[in-house]
Amino acid sequence: MESTRNNALVDVRHLKVYFPVMRGIFRTQVAEVKAVDDVSFKVDAGETMGLVGESGCGKTTVGRGILRLVEPTAGEVFFEGQDILTLPKERMRQLRRKMSLIFQDPYGSLDPRQSAGNIVGELLTIHHMVKSKSEYHDRVEQLFRQVGLDPAMTTRVPHEFSGGQRQRIGIARALACEPSLIICDEPISALDVSIQAQIINLLKELQQGHKGLTYLFIAHDLSVVRHISDRIAVMYLGHIVEITDSDTLYRNPLHPYTKALLSAIPIADPLIEKNREHIFLKGEVPSPLNPPRGCAFHPRCAEAVPECSNVTPELEDVGNRHQVACIRVKA
Amino acid sequence: MAVLLEVKNLETHFKTEAGLVKAVDGISYHIHEHEIVGVVGESGCGKSVSQLSILQLIPSPPGKIAGGEVWFEGNDLLRYPANGSKMRDIRGSKISMIFQEPMTSLNPVMSINQQLSEAMQLHLGLNKADARKRAIELLKLVGIPAAESRVDDYPHQFSGGMRQRVMIAMGLSCNPRLIIADEPTTALDVTTQAVLLKLMKDMVDRFNTSLVLVTHNLGVVARYAQRIYVMYAGRIVESGTTEDIFAHPRHPYTVGLLKCVPRLDGDRNKKLVPITGLPPNLVGMPPNCAFLPRCPYRIEQCRKEPWPPLTAVRKDHEAACFVHLEDKDLGINAE
Q1: Among chain A residues, CA nearest to B199
Q2: Which end of chain A has the least Cβ crowding within 10 Å, N or C?
């Protein structure tokens, strides 16, 4: 196990991303939103790490923080052993070739005026990945084929494609510079269910074809995340509450929030549903402007004890790389 | 169980620049008293339009209810003029609707009290003070804390989940016999979704109403519905009890839906089977089965003959398909 840990492609340590809240004509800072508050996790080369949580939990901000699309407030992000948060801008730009992003909205994330070929090929020119025009065209056509699009369609513009095809263009663009890490931010939630499966299968096949291709798969749908990920981190209100492999997460969840989240997801089988325990959370997610003291989940937690409102639980390993942030769970 | 609502050969058409769209193409179904029925299908299959048609809420033009009957309490609702008083007496009172988007379906410049009271003053004949009292009761019932003070708040002061609770309260306010919930929790987080669906189920049990749950989520219907109608391209392709449909699906589209969605308890190494191709364009549809181009089980007969009618395959279970799926290994029931 130890050797795989040193093999981490991405090593996020105590990442914090705070957004200032400004008010008044002098734009003085009156508060801050702790979107990501002390998040640490590792992603091994070649694996898929799922990041799951409900809206506003900070999962997207973690992805953007790793790419420095928002500048983190504190913490370290090691990518291939290098702390990328301290890199100068230009070096970071070069390194971005190795990390790319697939967006949620296949309509908004493609420039409507550019041809699909251009959208996919633009990065090849920017990062000097090709030497000649013919090499450029060959590579774009190859990328189209890789994601299951007809290379004859390179001259079309985005509106001529369906939602699923557009997402394929987005994936081809993400693959263009042969990245080692792709951050997939809700890549299928805008698609119809019958199309979602095509994209999930494509992402899985691409990973089997590229040794070492690593995904950070960010989504709210735990069924989908569990299907595609090797390991999963569950987030709540800016914190990671549990990290473990996908099968253990379903069979043996330890954090009360993970249990509630799992039980809330209906399974498409009435016989199983009849016999499942359903946990209903009370109240609502507190505002990240004014998070609860101690464990962020304690006001809604059925298992909370008085101590939970005083102690902020650390993410602790309970064995087999299963980490939980709950003082009630003992190793 | 007595039949509460019976829809016969409902057809709703839309005139578009590209041609006539038969959004609902001759569907028949019924809802029993005190029953939860799921209407399942992907976007554009006509599931919402069919429900809006029942209350004549189709914008016309471009939409038009081209034919059919909707029998409710001994009357055909489609014979009432859409804007007449008889139809208004039904809407919100006997049959109410809960919509998907709680932000756009609540009026942002009216307080919650005004919006809740309006229907109750109109349909139940309550005066202002009594309506307000009942509004507070309803808000308490759906789990809104500090209902006495929050009743005077405006929609923007509520979170998405709380707004949907207000919508549920509104749907219940006039003691309807039927509630139609159109994707009531799709825009919400999954833990909130679970709480609200449970709330709706409890309300149905408590007030003896029926509930139509329109959704694309098979899990939601598996958990709550007693019977299911599966829609594709404006038609019902399969209907039956929830247990039957999940255990023995008899239409290839239903089978496709079950196999393309990852299950929380599923085997992760098992590949998802996508439904090939795209949902059909509803303009100028051929007379054959609309699922034919995407169907892995199609036979020669499907090409030659028009769309098959719904036929009984088992007791209380119908499917619109020529192929006998009971003879085939469908590759479902993974566990």
Answers
A1: A280
A2: N
